[in-house]
Write a structure and sequence with these properties.
The protein is built from 12 helices and 9 strands. By secondary structure, the chain is an alpha/beta fold. The protein folds into 2 domains: 194 residues, Spore Coat Polysaccharide Biosynthesis Protein SpsA, Chain A, CATH 3.90.550; 108 residues, no CATH class. Helix 1 links the parallel strand 1 and strand 2. The longest helix is centred in the C-terminal third of the chain and has 25 residues. The chain is globular, with a radius of gyration of 21 Å.
Length: 326
């Protein structure tokens, strides 16, 4: 197998980081850990395992894209001959056999520039929010428009498009994939387990913050790059336009307007429920997925409102953290 570069990014991941690093250490692998201002023992833990460590400058705002670029630049500096690079978040463990499988796909098809697999939530039964993530990770197999944070990429293609957009606080992977596809590359999601994710998302407040971040990222991508326009329209339609229409309807048809709003919300939740059931999830998990996909429109609207406020005030936005330390 060809040598592979592995770039792990993290911030205060605690024991999750150690498990992540242990899952990727091996022969013909150059592992780099990029730390975004951790206050735990992440840096010392990585160094104790003999991992190359890049510590980001604290004076510049942290983003996952910035961290991945820093790791990629360091990889090219110490191992310029490497053809493939696996990106992985520090709260994930890489499944045994994945690196070899992904590299094989890239070697067999020169048109491929990104290969990703199934990211699974490691402890889906710890909370309803973990189970929601597990459903979210289950994306269709086949040629794809984008990948997530865990993926193996062809180094030459990544160099050609200039890496990630370090200014984005969310949605940096789809934006990169858009440029890779525009340059003629293909993204493939294969039917193979890739990583085990440990979200440790047990509180409603964590889910809320993550949804705020996704809303912000959707709007940023839509305005800057023409991405997620439909998603943004849906957020504003379901969380603002319809409720305002229902309020206005109170003066014309009374409580019937509220009933019609509830019917519309039920319809949306049921459609999402059917999608989750189609992926093989049980009826209870699919029900909650449908409900929370509706509810998340409200924190996403808040995130998009923050985007406009921050731009008006010319204020920089840092990453939105929702996970527990450790």
């Amino acid at each position: 197998m060809n040598p592979i570069g592995i770039i792990v990014i993290g911030r205060n991941e605690g024991n999750r980081l150690k498990e992540c690093l242990l899952s990727v250490i091996g022969e013909l692998r150059t592992v780099i850990y990029v730390d975004s201002g951790s206050t735990d023992n992440s840096v010392s833990e990585a160094k104790s395992l003999g991992i190359h460590v890049v510590e980001l400058d604290l004076s510049v705002k942290f983003t996952a894209a910035r961290a991945r670029n820093a790791g990629f630049e360091y990889l090219l500096l110490i191992k310029p001959e490497i053809e493939f690079v696996q990106f992985v978040d520090g709260d994930c463990r890489v499944v045994s056999g994945w690196l070899e499988r992904a590299a094989s796909e890239l070697m067999q098809n020169t048109e491929l520039v990104v290969v990703c697999g199934r990211r699974r939530e490691e402890f889906p039964n710890n909370s309803i929010f973990n189970r929601l993530l597990d459903i979210e990770w289950n994306t269709p197999v086949g040629e794809a428009l984008a990948c997530g944070g865990d993926a193996m990429m062809r180094v030459s293609a990544l160099k050609k498009v200039g890496g990630f957009n370090s200014k984005l606080i969310a949605g940096e992977e789809p934006e990169l994939c858009l440029r890779l596809r525009t340059a003629g590359g293909k993204i493939l999601r294969i039917d193979a387990d890739m990583t085990l994710h440990d979200a440790q998302m047990t509180r409603l407040s964590q889910w809320w913050k993550r949804s705020v971040r996704s809303g912000y990222g959707f709007l940023e991508g839509a305005l800057l790059y023409g991405l997620w326009v439909r998603q943004c329209f849906r957020i504003w339609f379901w969380s603002l336009f319809l409720p305002l229409l229902a309020i206005a309807g109170l003066f014309l048809i009374g409580g019937l307007s509220v009933l019609l709003l509830l019917v519309a919300y039920t319809f949306l939740s049921y459609r999402v429920y059917q999608i989750a059931r189609g992926k093989g999830f049980n009826s209870m998990d699919s029900f909650f997925y449908g409900v929370f996909c509706l509810l998340e429109k409200y924190p996403q609207l808040l995130g998009q409102s923050q985007y406009f406020i921050f731009r008006f005030l010319n204020k920089q936005t840092n990453i939105v953290e929702y996970k527990h330390v450790g």
